[in-house]
Amino acid sequence: MTLADMLAAQARRTPDTVFLRTRQGDVTYAEADGHTDRYAAGLAGLGARHGTPVVALMRNSADAVFTWFAAARLGAVYVPVNTALVGAGLVHTFRVTRARVAVVDADLLPQLLAVIGELDLLCTVLVRGADPGALTQRPRSIRFVDFALLGRHPRPPVPDTSPTDELAPAMMLFTSGTTGPSKACVLSHRYVMRQGELHAKYLGLTGGDVLYCPFPLFHLDATTLTVVAALDAGATAAIGVRFSASGFWDEVRSFDATVFNFMGATLTILWKQPPGAADRAHRVRLAWGVPMPDWKAEWEQRFGFPLFEVYGLTDGGVVAYDPLDTPGRPGSCGRIIPEYEVAVADGDGTPLPRGHTGEILIRPREPGTVMTEYYGMPDATAEAFRGGWLHTGDLGHLDHDDYLYFHGRAKDGIRRRGENISAYEVEQIVESHPGVLEAAAIGVPSELTEEDVKICVVLRPGAQLSAEELIAYCALRSAAYMVPRFVEFLPELPKTPTQKVEKFRLKEAGVTKATWDREAVAQPQRVQP
Question: Which InterPro entries does this entry report, sorted A to Z (predicted)?
Answer without folding.
Answer: AMP-bd_C, AMP-bd_C_sf, AMP-binding_CS, AMP-dep_synth/lig_dom, ANL_N_sf
